[in-house]
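Hi W.,

Here's what went into the run:
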Amino acid sequence: MNVRSKSMTREIVEAGLAKRRRKDRVFRTLGLLSTAVGLVFLITFFATLASQGASAFKQTHIILNIELSRELLAPDGPFDIDYADFDAVVRQALRRELGDVNGRRDRREMNRLLSIGAAYQVKDTIAKNPDLLGSTLKMLLPVSADVDMLLKGNIDRDLEQSQRPLSDRQIEWVDRLIEKDRLVSRFNSALFSNGDSREPELSGIRGALMGSVYMLLITILIAFPVGVATAIYLEEFAPRNFWADLVEVNINNLAAVPSIVFGLLGLAVFINWIGVPRSSSLVGGLVLALITLPVIIIASRAAIKAVPPSIREAATGLGASRMQVVAHHVLPLALPGMLTGAIIGMSRALGESAPLLMIGMVAFIVDVPAGFTDPATALPVQIYLWADSPERAFAERTAAAIIVLLGFLLLMNLAAVIMRRRVERQW
Amino acid sequence: MKSIDNDGTGAVPSGIDLQPRSVVGVEVPREAAAGAPVQLTELSGRTVGDVKAQDAYVVAEDVNVRYGSNHAIRDITLEIGRNEVVALIGPSGCGKSTFLRCLNRMNDSIESAIVTGRITLGGQDIYSRELDPVALRARVGMVFQKPNPFPKSIYDNVAYGPRIHGLAADRSELDHIVHTSLDRAGLLKEVRDRFDDPGTSLSGGQQQRLCIARTIAVNPEVILMDEPCSALDPIATARIEDLIDELSKNYAIVIVTHSMQQAARVSQRVAYFHLGMLIEVDETNRVFTNPQHKLTEDYITGRIG
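Here's what came out:
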């Protein structure tokens, strides 16, 4: 044995102290730096999103006195709402407002200031209240996205006329309308009440949002019970043998399989073989459930494993059957961990777009889905589609859709965290 | 009635070796205890002493347990009488806990464990196909080394057994069972006003008495105790030992302990295990004052263990 005197030990330890402290400091500084870098990225991300997306929540509208004259709406006698020319009514009102619109060319340019949604809005008003026919209404109507962009400062007035979407004449009209306080900025309710559209000012995320909600409902309803049941069976009942190991390895591998592969599986099995309607949130939910399952199973198994064996023994020793041990003791104690797995899985499912590609959900779908079998799309898909659109107005909508997606994610996780809090027990 | 030991050795935690101070009064130096090699030849032959009990209720015959290739206990034959406390003692890993867990088939949950031999409870083979382990465990209760109350209220802890077995017809009957069980476990006075508090909020000794109350709420015939005091302080230990004494009027009790003082205080008979074999069984007094086998003597005088 190499025995040193006490004073020697002390000297050696003290000599090394400075080096140890320096290492401590270096590691602490590195950790702080990494955290700072992450934080800077996060703040930049949110700031960019907010600055780009905020304007999408406002939309420019025009105040027009609409004369609902019978001559224009029902020139041949009886009024038929399906054949009435509401465009003419709205255009007439704007023409009166501007005054100097002469000739076909002028009129065509003027028409482009209005959104095609303006005429539909007038039509809806009449449909609700046919008695208004013949009267004059002061209405708030959407303008085209180009006018909206001009007012939001996204169109450069100094550019050559041919290089910007609005002509000099159109800009002159817009300025005149601004002077007369005819253009107002209001909350963009269309963003939350409409489905997708070719016209940016009429497009909304409701279709994609509902599609995502329906899909995630299917996903959680399938993946959570199946995942938890699988985890319980594998942990508590399955014999430990070659087959159990094989299943375990495969589940772990499935968690790492690229999601587009699950899309292919969904196409082959759910659509082609079982005949689930293509593009529906039902098939989307089924595919997302497959993707989520391994995550939930792995998290649930870990949660079950973490239940102290002493609790299991106590219940078994009292004469509880295996099922009673699981139902009365293991499950309540493992549930918080299982919910954590569900949160992670659902968050992943919400952000998936690749597997939806294969099952026809990456599509331009105008109607808001009303059920699980209606054609639908999802929020990340909507973001992709808008980001891909050339119109300037879709850029801010893309950012707005991302904000909504993140908000959805936050709400979902909040709900799960609250649920987890409620089932968590103190030891 | 026993009081608290002055020297407090009744509460030596299981992980720590007993000081080599023997019950029979021989002081053995620590080095001698550590350096005494055990010859396997000493282990041959049958159990010394008397395995028979008066009024035998639990009878184990030639019980062997194998965990895979590990032969954990060999040819154990032991009887446990009605209203008798039998203490199982021996060094760590000697198989006493394994034997205890055979008596209510807790080893069933270990897949590799193979139990052979015959154990009867009141004449009924507990390893027969007809007997459901669930029914067996309602008759043979168990108290564990570490207090393990459920993370539920005190009331629900005690009521759990009667509930799953359907022992109470209605709420008032259940209340009655919970009250009497807590009373017999000597815990009622302390928890009377807080049945709804979590069982885990109690102190260690109280938790162990709660576990005992939980066990006797099912009204078993036999109670198995696996080092019930190893995690408790001397005062809590003394209370549990009093309780064991009290309970032995109604139940057959088998207790595993590392404290020979405790074995001496609570048991009528002592079984000494060594390397999976039952070396010696006899009345407690006789084993501690006049051990017949050399290994037993070495153990109780502190030379091994």
